[in-house]
Amino acid sequence: QVQLQESGPGLVKPSETLSLTCTVSGGSISSYFWTWIRQPPGKGLEWIGYIYYTGSTSYNPSLKSRLTISVDTSKNQFSLKLSSLTAADTAVYYCARGNYGDAFDIWGQGTMVTVSS
Amino acid sequence: EIVLTQSPGTLSLSPGERATLSCRASQSLSSSFLAWYQQRPGQAPRLLIYATSTRATGIPDRFSGSGSGTDFTLTISRLEPEDFAVYYCHQFGSSVRTFGQGTKVEI
User: Fold this and answer.
1) pLDDT digits (tens, 9 = 90+) for B41-56
2) B71-96 average pLDDT score
3) How far apart, in whole angstroms, are the C-alpha atoms of residue A29 and residue B85?
């Protein structure tokens, strides 16, 4: 079955850029929406943005100026880059597959990212 | 941007009772584009319902969804111990997706 796995640093310094990758295994990244979602400690879910396998994207307006989501179909991966980090970006970051329109039917386990000097 | 408002914030119930969770959208939404998730502590969210009322694979039939326009509801007919968790609604009717703030169902 399809599985998603996030990878990237657990600790990043303020003002730096966060780079995360989501590897899709057990299926092809072609078709579907591929999404990043985050959850600050003790808080709710925040949609970050998606990329369609063709490369088209949509971003959360509050993050758009700092955000890039890309896809590498040859590696079955998609990635997030978020720049100019502050403590407010500290969160668990999830990747997810959008299906049935864009309901998130498969999630990664999540990776905790802490922004601190 | 479509804002989703969930109520109540917390629902205190006992096992065996019925839970009714509300999700209100700031503008009318096609029923095809509304989903519900369950999140247990320390776990990733799990898709329960999509297209307002279709249960995802493996979801027991005590979970049901309904609604249209701006008002949507998730109902758990008889709460099992494993159902005490946080529930989120999610819309994908616009290019900017959004989640509700969550409803915690506690014992």
Assistant:
1) 999 999 999 999 999 9
2) 96
3) 31
